[in-house]
Amino acid sequence: MGMMKRKRLSLITLIWLANMMSGICRAEDITIRYNGSQVKVTQAKKDSVSVTIDGAIVNVESLYESHKLTLLVKGSSDDGQLNLKTKGKAKVTLDNLNLTSQEGAPLYLKNKKKVEIVAAKGTENTLAITACNDTANHKAATIWAKDKLLLSGKGTLNIIATGDGCRGIKSKKDITIEDLTLNVTTSGNNLGEKPFGPPEGFQGGPEGGFPEMPEGGFPDMPKGGFPMPGDSTRRFGPPGFPGGRPDFGGMRPEMGDSIEGDFPDFGGGFGGKHKYVAPTKGIASKGKIAINSGNVSVRTSTAGAEGIEGKEGVVFNGGNVDVLSPDDAVNAGDCIEFNGANVIARSTGNDAVDSNPKSGFFSPFGNNEQSSEPAIIIRGGTVYAWSQVGSPEEGLDCDFAAIVIEGGKVFSVGGGMGEMPSVPTSGTANQPTALLIGLGIEKDEPINIYDANNKLLDTVTIPFSLRRSASLVSNPVFKLGKTYTVKTKGYERTFTFKENLTTVR
Fold first, then answer.
1. How many domains is the chain partitioned into structurally?
2. Is 362 inside any structural domain?
């Protein structure tokens, strides 16, 4: 009986050791150590993985579809790259890696399934790119991914793009960020630009031509003007009339800023606008971007270089996010959701948060009623959306779609379209929200919010001055029927929430 027990224990031990050995292989299928102009690669799995080395450039191609390839990357090089092509999932752990590429992405992922980039706990890792001339090979970013990308880990990852036309992080599919301390900085110029407008020799319009003018001309302006903020619809009215003018997503012909993603590229020219061939954006995805946790900082410095852009939407679930950009700090071609993160989105030359859903775009041939599909949803967290350029740019811009405020602390600053910024209605402001028209912002002067008993409820300090702003203010402590005061240097307004959206002039 004792012998059988010992044999059983020996068998269990052997199985345990086998699993441990197998686990070690999976933990580090490939280890890459950069050392200046050279690199050393240790490869545990070789049967379906090809590794080639050229100086400090490592090319890894994996044919695994079910096995999750894992790489550990460490060391330093000022002229190196890691090019990873995978059929299955992969995990790349960065262990105090300092990798700079002189041309093309230092981390180039031709992945068919999700790749996870992990900054190992307690480590600081830096990826940098200095030139992006080889844009034909889609390497115009510090991290470039063909499929889904997950950025995670308890360490720090610095993304630096100094080359012209170089983005920080670019993916053709979804990008998810969690736990990580992520710092993204782009400082290069845009890599060329082309005029926006009809192509040379353009004769027609849509198939069959543009619609003819209705018999008898277009309808007259409604008696009494167009609906004002807080109404259930937002319609086009000429400048100087109630209702303002249409919101073209920041289209200001005199500025020459980028409008990539806002309009189709006709390749011609009108209105003085241009579309940049390769704007130096911070984080860009043709899918959706989700930030679940961690600390994310994005800094861009060139006109047209948006901070965070998700073509299919941006979702802030948690963490701390700080974005500063001369263009839109946060931009999406679909809904932007704030569910619990603490977000500061600041633009020096455009909208702070700009959602451009197809359903909310202005059409000169439609009635331009506000879409029922929300463009911006705020459910929790802190949303500071600040545009410091003045009218017509906004803190929260949703074109002709809806803003929904269900919770969270909100303080937006912008010029709005005259006095008609993008606003929720009393039906979509499920948490009492004030629209402050004419709020004067003084740089670094605190803006204080008090209740009826003069109890200080909140203080916001904004790092720039704006003579007149159209600001949205919402707070979980606000209640219908209650009175509040907003006070700052040179401005004081007391108001009572008679409905969920209250306009204060």
1. 1
2. yes
Which amino acid, 134? D
Tokens of 304: 């047209």
Name the burial class of residue 51, with classes exposed (0-12), middle (13-18) and buried (19+) by CB atoms within 10 angstroms of its CB: middle
Residue 293 token pair: 């946790």
pLDDT digits (tens), the chain, 505 positions: 555 455 554 554 544 444 444 333 345 799 999 999 999 999 987 788 999 999 999 999 999 888 899 999 999 999 999 999 999 999 999 999 999 999 999 999 999 999 999 999 999 999 999 998 866 556 899 999 999 999 999 999 999 999 999 999 999 999 999 999 999 999 998 866 655 444 444 444 444 444 444 444 444 434 433 343 333 333 333 333 223 333 333 333 223 333 333 333 333 333 344 455 668 999 999 999 999 999 999 999 998 899 999 999 999 999 999 999 999 999 999 999 999 999 999 999 999 999 988 654 444 444 445 556 899 999 999 999 999 998 889 999 987 789 999 999 999 999 865 555 788 888 899 999 999 998 989 999 999 999 999 999 999 999 999 988 899 999 999 999 999 999 998 899 999 999 999 999 8
Which residues pair with residue 473 across a beta bridge?
Answer: 411, 434
Does a structural domain hold residue 376? yes
Under 8 Å between Cβ of 347 and 393? yes
Whole-angstrom distance, CA of residue 22 vs CA of residue 121: 23
Instruction: Find the angle CA(301)-CA(302)-CA(306) to the nearest 5 degrees.
Output: 85
Beta sheet of 49-54, edge-to-edge order = 49-54, 57-62, 81-86, 107-111, 141-145, 167-171, 283-285, 308-310, 330-332, 353-355, 396-397
Give bridge partners of residue 182 from the DSSP assignment.
157, 296
Number of helices (H), then strands (E), in the chain:
1, 38
Residue 150 lies in a domain: yes
The residue type found at 252 is R
Strand bridging mode 295-299 / 320-325: parallel
Residue 479 within any structural domain of the chain:
no
CA nearest to 416, candidates 359, 479, 470, 477: 470
Report the alpha-carbon distance of residue 464 to residue 93 in Å, rounded: 40
Element (H, E) at 285: strand 283-285
Q: Residue 27: which H helix or E strand, with range? A: helix 2-27
Domain residues for the domain of 276 are 30-193+255-266+269-429
Q: How many residues does the chain have?
A: 505
pTM of the prediction? 0.79
